[in-house]
Amino acid sequence: MGIEERYANVAAEVAAVCREAGRDPREVTVVAVSKTVGPAQVGSAVAAGARDFGENRPDGLVEKAAAYPQANWHFIGNIQSRRIPDIVGSAALVHSLVEERHARKIDEAAAAAGKVQDVLLEVNVSGEQSKGGLAPGDVAALLDACGGLAHVRVRGLMTMAPQGDLDAARATFEGLARLHAELRADLDPSRAALFDGLSMGMSEDWREAVHAGATIVRIGRAVFDDAFEASGPGAGNLA
Q1: What is the pTM of this model?
Q2: How far from chain centre, in Å, is Cα 192?
Q3: Coil, helix or strand for 96?
Q4: Has the keyword NAD been applied to this entry (predicted)?
Q5: What is the DSSP string of 98-136?
Q6: At a CB cut-off of 8 Å and minimum separation 6, what does 182 contact?
Q7: Domains of the chain by range and CATH?
Q8: Residue 79 is inside which H or E element, if any?
Q9: Are 179 and 123 in contact (CB under 8 A)?
């Protein structure tokens, strides 16, 4: 099965799971995580209808965004201060903001680029030491700090769930959704209207994320990796 068919099947299944959850499929964006493939493979996904792609390294982001400027490019990796201008120059949405100093540098780079940079705050809901992100109790402070930056717009939250345990993943996603609702309730109406994003769920656990309220799911292997169909969790179900 080629990339075109895999992407089409993933998109169809995401739509079906949305309907199963009582949601409009248009509420959920599928980000095809292209960090392990080259521009040619991205082109195959574009041909299948993919419009959103995720990269975790600035070099890959810059290269592929230049090759496919018609797509929406998401930066999903750790932020390095010295690469912030490159990230801001290519990313429609940055998923992984965790430090105020980076927020301020993003603000400066976005001002220089003549744009307002959309970002998500990364939250470590599960508390795993191997996971990056803010502790839930620290999110409000960074959200407040970003409110004073003219060229940074916080669009919501992002998290990663523990691997190999769908019950734990479900609890993580539900926890992020609760935190998002609590924070949104405290924002003024204009900021609350834009604070609408929940990036959660990957190839193994995106179904649980959709049921918990995800607006963005990050799916890489189910789109780009031949081996995932045969050996990944939920084989045959495009996990």
Answers
A1: 0.92
A2: 19
A3: strand
A4: no
A5: --HHHHHHHHHHHHHHTS-EEEEEEB-SS--TTS-SB-G
A6: none
A7: 3-229 (3.20.20.10)
A8: none
A9: yes
